Structure formats: C-alpha cells, structure tokens
Amino acid sequence: MRNSIFRLTWVAAFLLVATGTWAQSSDGNNGSFTLPSLLIIVAIAVLVYLYQKSDNVLALETREGGKKSPRTRSLARSKVPSYVNGGPVKLLKKGYDILLEGEPSKEVQVATDVRTFAVQPGNFPGLSPIPKVLVEAGAEVKAGDPLFFDKNRPEVQYVAPVSGEVVAVNRGTKRSIAEVVILADKDIKYRQLDAPDYGKCSREELVSFLQANGAWPFIRQRPFNVLADAQDVPVNIFISTFDSAPLAPDLNLVVAGREAAFQEGLNVLNKLTSGKVILGLDARGTEAPSSAFTQAANADKYWFQGKHPVGNVGVQIHHIAPINNSDKVWTLGVQDVITLGAMFSERRFNAERVVALTGAELKQPKYVRTYLGASLTELLKDNLASDHVRIISGDVLSGDQKNQDSYLNFYDDQVTVIKEGDYFEAFGWLTPSEMRPTVSRTFRNFLFPNRRYKADTNTHGEKRAFVVTGQYEDFLPMDIYPQHLMKAILVNDFEKIEGLGIYELVEEDVALCEFACTSKQPLQKILRQGLEMVHEQG
Prior knowledge:
Blueprint: H1 2-24, H2 34-64, E1 89-91, E2 108-110, E3 116-119, E4 132-133, E5 140-141, E6 146-150, E7 153-159, E8 164-171, E9 177-184, H3 203-212, E10 220-222, E11 226-227, E12 236-240, H4 251-255, H5 259-270, E13 276-282, H6 291-294, E14 300-305, H7 313-320, E15 329-332, H8 334-345, E16 352-358, E17 366-371, H9 376-379, E18 389-393, E19 400-402, E20 414-419, H10 482-490, H11 494-499, H12 507-516, H13 523-537
Parallel strand pairs: 1-14, 2-17, 12-13, 12-15, 13-14, 16-20
Antiparallel strand pairs: 3-9, 4-6, 5-8, 6-7, 8-9, 10-11, 10-15, 16-17, 18-19, 18-20
C-alpha cells in the first residue's frame, strides 16, 4: 500500500510539472487548470490513505475479537471458484506463469516402442556414488527385484521398475555407478509382494516392508530434500496434486483410472506420520480437479490460487505449516503415491508412469504411458523437429539437461525439448527482436498476457556482478528474502543462512528467481551448496 501512495505522489508531481509548464506557455488564462488537478490528485491520495488505515483497523479489531475476517483488499482478489465449496483457500499474489509453445494433447498413448529402462543412483540425494550392486549384465529380473542398495543404509532397496534382462551396469566418473539398464520384457512380470495389513501392523513393520521392496526412495524429507530417515516421524506428509511449472503434466489426467491406488497410498501414509497427510489442491481453473483429489479420505485439503510456483509443494508447506530445523516433513508426488498404494492393493511394485512429452521442438507433444526411468531415445524416436535441441528431464526451470542416450530421472514425469540457444545476440534488448519468455517490461510481452512463446536456452547475457535488485521477492511467494540468503551462502555466514529461512527451500522453489535474475546467478546451485553445508553441520 505504501508503494501505491508513493506511485501516486510521483504521478502528482509529474502532472503538476506538466500542467505548470503548459500554463506558463499559454496566454495566462489556462493557469487555473493547475489547482483543480492538484485537488483531484490530493483527494485520490487521501482516499487511498483512508482505505489503508480502515483496512488495518478492521484486521486489528477482528484479531482482538478472536475472529478471522478477510481484509478489505482481499475482496479485490481473484474470485474463488464455486467448486472450492468453502474449503480453506490460499491466494498467492507473487509469482509468474511462463507460457510456452509445445503443450501436449489431452490423450494418453501407450509407448509400446519403449523397451529400455534404467535406475540411476545419481537421482537420489545423499546416496553413495558407489552403491552395492546386486545384479550384473545378463541377469534376469522381475519388476520389484532389488538392483542395489546404499552401503550406509542397507535396509533401503532400490528395485527394478520392469522385468527383463540387465543389459548394462554403466559407470561414471571415479567408477561411480551411473545407471543399471534393463531391456524390458514385452509382458512385464512382477515379483509378488507379501504386503502386511497396514491397519493392524506396527509402524516399524510397515516401514521395514517399504524399505525392503522399493517404496522408500519415493519419500523425500525436508529440510534438505533428502531420502527420508525411518527413525524420524514426520510432523506432516505433503502432496501437491498439481504442477504449475511451464508445460507441466496435468495430474488430473495422470490419476485417471488409478484413483483406488492413490487412495490406498494415502491410507498407508497416514500410518507413518504423527500429524496429517495434506493435499494441495488447484483452485486456478474453471473446472474442479479430479475427484480422486477433492474426495480423498484420510487427508486434509487446502486450495491454492496464484501463479507459479504455486504448485510447488515447498510453497504449499510454507503457507500451511512452515517448517524449521527441528521439524521433519515428508513429501511425495502423485504418481509416487499411486505406486505406493499399488503395493498393497495389487501386491506388486507397479512403476507405471504417465509422462508428458512437451516443447516446441517436438513434432507431436503428447502424453505417453510407460515406466520409471524410460529411455529418452525411445521416448522421442521420430518426434524431434530438428537435431539442434536441448533435451530436459523435467521442466525448463528446474529440470536436468540430458542427451538422447540418457534416461528419464526417477522423480520426473515430464520431458521438455527446446531449441539450443548457442547464438550471439548483438546489443540485446537495445534492438527490436522477436518476443520471448521474459519477466521484463523492456519487451512488449506484457501487452499479450495469454500468448505462448517459443523458448530456447540462450541466457541473453553473461554472469554479472551480484547486485541487490529486490526482484527475487516478486517471484517467491514466501516470507523469505532470497537474495540476502544467496549472498549469505556465498560468504558461508552460517547463522545468517539459518535465520534467513534456508530450511524451507529446495532448488525448484528458487528456479523462477533464477530465470528472472538480472545478474544471471546460478541460484539453484548456490542453494544446494548452502543446503549441503547446513546439513553437514547437523
């Protein structure tokens, strides 16, 4: 509100100068125009001031009375859809939606040509780079058979997503295990699971079953976004039922036909927490989300409305039950919950995934049904518009760069293909150019808020001095000062890092800030550096 008054003051000053100059250049009879103009501007400023004061008084009175009442300014916010039906709604003002070409058609095709899959130890934060591998090339495995485990946590097994022949155990730098590759059978065979009755067994028995049969890697723990520690009982378990990242998959489409397995997964998760299982629901559209989400039992539900990163589970945690260094919170994705539930309802490790193939450099963006760790070569076969492209496992903001011989990351259900931007742009924004995805009003994009753009990987500038611009705060809907936090990480100021809220953040939360950064700083890399430093300190 202070910013509004500040802007009005500048407008008033500008009009006074303009009208005064116009009056002096006239014949003297028009000078009287200045006084009415000034009175109108002063009246507007007074009304804005009174509006602010009355709003604050209203909030104070309702708080003292022990009641909750929306502020006057909240009445001007976006309308809450009728399907919310009185549920708790979080309306977020900050953020930015990046609209890109290459949205997939709303039809799921079975990817019958995809036969090669891999589990990649590098996908699991904290896992030893050289785990104990239990299979070798030529071995036959069923879906759910153990492939490797961490020598520091041997109870947690990492299992095969499909049945077939192990065709390679590829190594990376310093003989680390890069991937265990499986050539899948035409008809997937599953290891039958002896799942306990989660309604009657102890928490310890349930945890042991999940660790031994491949479900535990789906559960990530915050702070730090690492593999969950079975010794910690989470205060809550959070699941975001929508993704707001560019070209992100529609999770309502993903859950269709798997509603029962999703509900079973929620039931299991309830046995693992001392608090609640909490779902973040999408209140942005004209149509209600899937009934699998809105009618889910054994879960608290909160609605969210706003721009990206509103779909990030970290943002939702911040607005529901913020965490600190003493809290432990677990998170899962929707398809992870489905696989977890299928272990009890189907008695098998069913790693089926609906993957969105997106981006303007695809001939046919689409949804495909496949399995965890699918080969990108086979997923994208005969579908690339050109050879000069960047393949990304995940979205354009926080995904990983891949080559065509790589595999889909364990936690990803999206592949994005965009043009490689390895060209030089003379004079940058000084010269007229084609509109592009940007938050800057230097370009005319803001005149076309619903237009979609063709993105490439060009950063349109080199890394620069890390100056304090205050722009990050417009794109992170949290009560955190990300720029100050990043600077504290760079100088290893441990106390300031803790005080500035690092426990609530992971890389995807600052990805939009990195996109908007004038200084071209690698904020996600800096944040991970800080998270690892704090984690090592215990």
